[in-house]
Amino acid sequence: MRSPRRRTALTLAALAGVLAAGCREQRAAPRLSAAPSTEGGAPSAILFERDVSGNVDLYVIGAGGGRERRLTDHPAADMLGRWTPEGASVIFSSNRTGTSQLFEVAAEGGKPRRLRENNADESQSDVSPDGATLAFLSDFEGPPRLLVMSRASGVTRDMVRQGNNTIFGNPHWSPDGRFIAYSSNWRIGHQIYVVEVATGQRRRISRITSGGCEARFSPDGRRLVYVSRGHLGDTSRLLEHELATGREKVLVSWPALNYDAAYSPDGTEIAFASNVTGDWAIYRQRLADGRAWRVTFGPGAARYPDYRPVPSGRRR
Predict the structure, then answer these.
(1) Is 237 a residue whose pLDDT tops 50?
(2) What is the C-alpha separation between 307 and 264, in angstroms, rounded?
């Protein structure tokens, strides 16, 4: 789920604005380090999107900051990117064909490959940990819903479908591939849910009184981080939810809009976007002590970070 902002296409603008409606906050000054850091065994790269004068493209930057590398370059909006499990490619949404569709591009760049061809709006994808299945949002031949698709055969099935006026947001697979976290405004305002892939059984995670959006599993699958914004206030918090106990704690409560959180592969930190300086930028925050530092400094809003996974051959 994302806060409103300008888009080069109406379909993506509508998506961003609508998703923001579901997600008041305690204010605390950020504890920023003086310079970027690579403490905590962080991976080498973070994927993110940057909006420069209304044109959104995907970029990659070292986790400790530095020079950005542009991954896509197109007049359309290329956005909402996620690494594949081995970090070999990125799947993203783009309206370069007229509607929002899913594309895949190699980690080093090149010509993107379109994954599906239809006239629907399809976006916000995430690949299962084994790389075999893609979860994404689509209104193909019906109301918006959460779909899963075999990457080998292209066969899809409905994972969650709840009616014509339902708004979904940000599916994310659990590390064991058994569950998908997502957000939905079904009946009781925008909330966080977890659905079991094998059975379709789902349960609400967020509190009814506050709601939430943009849920991401921790690498050990025991926690979720998500955005709590209340009723479109001018700030938002990042909360961490313990799945076994339901206990929650605040990770980020800066006097700003704080969105787009993702855990690092080793679970020691999160990356997220904040407009605490007035401009959207990417930050990293160490979970052990709450120390944070800014990663991006270039022109234009930087949003939606995703850590590049550590390939299995390099894991300890």
Answers:
(1) yes
(2) 6
Degrees to nearest 5, angle at CA 278 with 277 and 282: 60
Residue with tokens 């310079």: 35
Residue 4 to residue 74: CA distance in whole angstroms: 22
- Give the pLDDT score at 300: 96
Q: Which residues contact 134 (CB under 8 A, 6 or more apart)?
A: 91, 102, 115, 125, 126, 127, 128, 148, 149, 151
Residues β-bridged to residue 45 = 62
Task: Render pLDDT for 172-216 as a digit per residue (tens, 0 to 9).
Answer: 999 999 999 999 999 888 999 999 999 999 999 999 888 999 999
User: Cα–Cα distance between 47 and 130 in angstroms, integer?
Assistant: 20
The residues with which 272 forms a beta bridge, in sequence order, are 283
Q: Provide, for the chain, the percentages of residues in helix, strand and coil under a 3-state DSSP scheme, each rounded to the nearest 5.
A: 5, 40, 55
Would you state the structure tokens that stand for residue 54, as one six-digit string?
A: 């209304």
Question: Where exactly are the structural domains of the chain?
Answer: 10-310
Cα distance between residue 59 and residue 165, in whole Å = 33
* pTM summary value: 0.87
Q: How far apart are CA 284 and CA 290, in angstroms?
A: 10
The CATH code of the domain at 10-310 is 2.120.10.30
Element (H, E) at 295: none
* Whole-number pLDDT of residue 11: 35
Phi/psi for 245 (5° steps) reads -115, -20
